[in-house]
Design a protein that fits this description.
Elements lengths: L3 E6 L5 E6 L2 E8 L4 E5 L3 E7 L5 E8 L4 E8 L4 E4 L7 E6 L5 E6 L6 E6 L6 E2 L7 E6 L5 E7 L5 E7 L7 E4 L5 E6 L5 E6 L6 E6 L5 E3 L6 E5 L6 E4 L3 E6 L10 E7 L3 E7 L5 E8 L8 E3 L6
Antiparallel strand pairs: 1-2, 2-27, 3-4, 3-26, 5-6, 6-7, 7-8, 9-10, 10-11, 11-12, 13-14, 14-15, 15-16, 17-18, 18-19, 19-20, 21-22, 22-23, 23-24, 25-26
Amino acid sequence: MTAKADFDVSANGVVVYATDTTSARLVIADRRGGERIVDEKGLFYHLAISPDGKQAAVSIFAGESRRSDLWIYDLAHGIRDRFTTDAGAEVDPVWSPDGQTIVYSSAQEGLPRLARRGVSASAAQYLLPESGYQFGGSFSPDGANIYYSQRDVRRRMHIYRVPLAAAARPQLVVGTDSNEEDPRVSPDGKWLAFESDLTGDFEVYILNLANRERIPLTNGGCTMPRWRRDGRELFCISSHAVLSVTPGTDANWHEATSTTLLPVKATVKGFDATPDGQSFLLSEWTPGPTDHLIHVITGAIPQ
């Protein structure tokens, strides 16, 4: 529960308000339909499973402070340790390939910026000198580059790559009149999966990083693309299910097939696949039973 309410008061003393009693849970679901609750005490946002599959970095919203911090979970035991304690909001965690570093979006000085911090380090460093709605996506397989999305002056999101070497400058990877977000590099480094609203709805596409060919993979709405560790399967979240997308013969993504793996009964705010692609970590939100209603109080303020 966030204890938040949107309200207004008329001149004659009528109060109108809407409640927000959303609950959430962090759950591991497998391809056979089984599930295990990791935590249900919090409002869980974006998340990322570590490369070894044993931990997860999760952004948790605190209703009291109105901010989110990153926590690291031991997935086998459901135990969590706080990773950030800053005054702003931290979201979109991304693990480095060696599991020793997390890049995330931090809003400590106004607009969210990419920050990098070692798992055992006590402080973070900003990656880029400029700010402006930067959100993490993924590392390249060799750990030398980070792919991320950033909003432009027209309020559209585009995808960039920045080498982690000192003084390196970002390079535009995907930038059109549409929004492109959540870039995920394939394990072999040849493909970039991302979501775009080119058709009006967000769908998953992949980009051949060698020849720049762009291939649509879904039709009907899907977000949060995530690769299996061997690169032979891609997952995403539709409005009602976790989908699997696999290429055709000889890894031909032009002949990709989409399959429903398991249903989703709540709003998914965060999603990732275990390295073997057999299980999935989801942050699921469910509104309170009366949150869809508008409440009216008459005579609340004496005339």
